[in-house]
Amino acid sequence: xxxxxxxxxxxxxxxxxxxxxxxxxxxxxxxxxxxxxxxxxxxxxxxxxxxxxxxxxxxxxxxxxxxxxxxxxxxxxxxxxxxxxxxxxxxxxxxxxxxxxxxxxxxxxxxxxxxxxxxxxxxxxxxxxxxxxxxxxxxxxxxxxxxxxxxxxxxxxxxxxxxxxxxxxxxxxxxxxxxxxxxxxxxxxxxxxxxxxxxxxxxxxxxxxxxxxxxxxxxxxxxxxxxxxxxxxxxxxxxxxxxxxxxxxxxxxxxxxxxxxxxxxxxxxxxxxxxxxxxxxxxxxxxxxxxxxxxxxxxxxxxxxxxxxxxxxxxxxxxxxxxxxxxxxxxxxxxxxxxxxxxxxxxxxxxxxxxxxxxxxxxxxxxxxxxxxxxxxxx
Length: 379
Ligand SMILES: N[C@@H](CCC(=O)N[C@@H](CS)C(=O)NCC(=O)O)C(=O)O
Fold this sequence. Notes:
Oligomer: single chain
Bound molecules: glutathione
CATH topology of the largest domain: Glutathione S-transferase Yfyf (Class Pi), Chain A, domain 2
Largest sheet: 4 strands, mixed
Structural class: alpha+beta
Strand order of the largest sheet: 2-1-3-4
Number of strands: 8
């Protein structure tokens, strides 16, 4: 079976699905989202313009990086198990799936869109290559880029990047790079000798934006060689861990969590937990105002809408405002499902400042039905 992956080379969420397909040796074609077939046949079936979309030979479509990985794994296509089975590793994997895809959006967007002198010639052509009709006149590519760039600069603001927060975004990202680099000094992947779901979460921003656009790629190469190598490794078909002596593809023994990984978890607590508190609080107030919301619906007017509102909160001493997306709650639920009532995880969570992850829940769960995020009945 050959799959088609509709996306673009520089798309954050496409990078997650692509990395999984490469690493697990699943045959697939990278297809441009600019193909008329995507617009005309795939998008109407998905219900909104969004990438990545994976299409199987029989025409079955799966939208969303996390859903694609789960689907492939359930179909038995994984070369190495993506989801760890031991409690601590399982939980850590889900935390980094959430943090990678959603928590690193501030540096991803800042380093793509606020360094025009260095980035724009590359990003302009790159967007055109992925989004314009294949073979079209270059003027179509330029137009497509203008449209997309305007949307993305707006999206950057809705992730909390503003004049006042920029120095903090940069300092936090450099801290993250240093911590991840230190962790990779003794392990080729987040949890040991092979990639797991946390690596696939992290690769989304660290490949598409931060490891590939000219300005941040240069920064990563200069400041965090091991992270840059990990980005390369995550897109290699083998384990690509020669410099570690090509260790067995095992996870840390005894569900172990080395200090360097605990330090990364503490970083997540400081950097991202305030945002989780803010959006869970907002979502609960929003749900409370809609007691009659029909289960199985999004509560939004159009299927293309993904944000239920905006919430302000204190981030590293500055007030920032972010869009509240049910999608993030869906990923947060995966973290909470991994916590369950396992008492032994409490120690790890409290030691790393992440205890609130277990309790920050919404009054209804988010489910994905027909590729869209919808609310369940109240729980
Ligand atoms: N969590 C989703 C997010 C997908 C997403 O936001 N994709 C971006 C491109 S990287 C997109 O399609 N944006 C559509 C738009 O902004 O119009 C997934 O993995 O499918």
